[in-house]
Amino acid sequence: MAGPEAADNASAxxxxxxxxxxxIPAGAVFAMxxxxxxxxxxxxGPQIITQHPDLFWGLIxxxxxxxxxxxxxxxxxxxxxxRLLMTPYRFLYPAILTFSCIGVYTVRxxxxxxxxxxxAGAVGFVLRTFDCSASPLILGLILGPILxxxxxxxxxxxxxxxxxxxxRPISLGLLLLAAAMIIVFSLPAIRKAATARKTGAVxxxxxxxxxx
Length: 212
Fold this sequence. Notes:
The protein is mainly α. Among the domains are: 1-86, no CATH class; 168-201. The chain has helices at residues 2-14, 16-22, 28-39, 48-51, 53-74, 78-85, 89-108, 111-129, 135-158, 164-167, 169-203. The longest helix is centred in the C-terminal third of the chain and has 35 residues, at 169-203. It is extended and about 65 Å long. The N and C termini lie far apart (64 Å).
């Protein structure tokens, strides 16, 4: 148990390096953290150390303090954590929901925040039910504000004329490249669906032989 946990902690801490210095998330969790920083008006990048030193060095200090606390608490309480893993999920699930709602409510002491979190959880449940990936949603959260800012800038330059996106060679090339990537990545799914339809049409319904 100690080996996987040590590897997980080492991997998680190193993922902060590209996120804080280059603004590149190394996973879904760090992409959400990157989106949260951008919502607060803190763009990660090389200037974060000089522009927001309190955040950067506070994060470094929290890593040291967190590792010391993990060492102090985990060694004597490892038996408790193992027993906690044996707790049935039907008991853990209500407790997790309760503590999540309490944490959301204590931020601003408003019920609206709890309802917003519940709505987000419902949307996440629907997406998980239909086996939808969370990566496009996270990328949209991160790249959405950047896309909107550059869209406004382009329309201001062109005087509100949207044809600027297809008359400039670089913009037109990027749009065609994006369309080609969508088509290329969609072809396997289209071929699979077409093959399944043809197979069903050829096989047809199964006819049972008449009993004599």
